[in-house]
Amino acid sequence: MSWLSEPKKGAVRRSGIITVLDVGSSKVCCIIARLMPAEEGRALRHRTHRVKVIGIGHQQSQGMKSGVIVDLDRAEEAIRLAVDAAERMAGLTVDSLIVNVSAGRLRSETISASINLGGHEVAQSDINRVLAAGARQGLETEREVVHSLATGFSLDAERGIRDPRGMVGSELGVDMHILTADAAPLRNLELCINRSHLSVERMVATPYASGLAALVDDEAQMGAACIDMGGGTTTISVFAEGKFVWADALPVGGNHVTMDLVRGLSARLEDAERLKVMHGSALISSSDDRDIVSIHPMGADPGEQPIQVPRAVMTRIIRARIEETLEMARDKLNRSGYGGLVGRRVVLTGGASQLVGLPEATRRLFGRNVRLGRPLGVAGLPEAAKGAAFSASVGLLIYPQVAEFENRGRSGKSGIFTRATGTGGRFQRVSQWLKSNF
């Protein structure tokens, strides 16, 4: 079990309320949920709590482009409306939340660090020290550490240790996955949330959250890639031996497919989106030349007759963009060095992944088994929120339970993450919240 959620000896796990905010390029979603202690499941063994949604609100995203805020006022309004809807449904007021981040040119690094133990038993303070030593190596000018996760410990050069606490040795080492992002997009996102009279407890990378929601434990243990295809960004994450080990992002998503249809068919934006959802496909079929779709040209008079276009024309436009996006994702995965760890398993999430034929197109390009992932292990979600589009939102709810050996921001003596998002010590409160509730 995660040491973050493991109660102190003699203590009993308590229920708690958690609020998350998924700020995407196509939608803004706020979920308020109650976490209740539960027995571990067989398929989801590392879940320490049952999650029951008590409030949900979502709005069409405004002021966002490829995961980056481009209009502060419009983005703030969308966030306010989504949070207000969730608060009304839950019957409570929110003051802080966990938010996702997909912008800022996410970059993964693997870092090793070690400290001298002097022959005594490994205590929690020693783990904190070695994690802090590794996290400091990930700090760069104008870059912020989003995650610093321990992927494995070593004790006196003996590697592969999962939990060294209580063991005796002279030197404690750790291998860490450090995920960083550009500082400016993170600060602007937090500023936008602060303007809505809310505070950010923790920022969680979208690829990490999507993988937590969509992968079962066996996939995460054996090795799998999760590709989250959103409206403005496509993120890739790799899980192996139950750990989040690599991530990257592409500034392209489902909105780019829609814009290609707008340009290629001279259609209005809302018509192009409707055609993509209702008639779009990533694969060409034999009936496409016979099937006809009606398109109202851009700038046409209301009474003007629509243009009749073979569906094959639309499919070719969609297929070109989808194949380009998937090829970019495949190349990034192969260059990362983790392509071999993935084995033969790829899971697709995100709203754009629901396009007809996308799993088959991905299977052909990647040469791996592909399935469409949906949020797992959360009760109370409305039917409309049970699809792949809400994987990142649900992953944010799961994050506090399963983030093992992550170095959380602390102010004061430890001196790490004090640059966080320009707030100095806000990340400290999430650690206190987790300890008090779990």
UniProtKB/TrEMBL annotation:
GO terms for cellular component: cell division site; cytoplasmic side of plasma membrane. It is a peripheral membrane protein. It is found in: Cell membrane. Residues 18-214 form the SHS2 domain. One of its GO terms (biological process) is FtsZ-dependent cytokinesis. It holds the Pfam family FtsA. Keywords: Cell cycle, Cell division, Cell membrane, Membrane. SUPFAM superfamilies: Actin-like ATPase domain. Self-interacts. Interacts with FtsZ. Cell division protein that is involved in the assembly of the Z ring. May serve as a membrane anchor for the Z ring. PANTHER family: CELL DIVISION PROTEIN FTSA, CELL DIVISION PROTEIN FTSA-RELATED. HAMAP family: FtsA. Belongs to the FtsA/MreB family. This is Cell division protein FtsA. It comes from Nitratireductor aquibiodomus. The lineage of its organism: Bacteria, Pseudomonadati, Pseudomonadota, Alphaproteobacteria, Hyphomicrobiales.
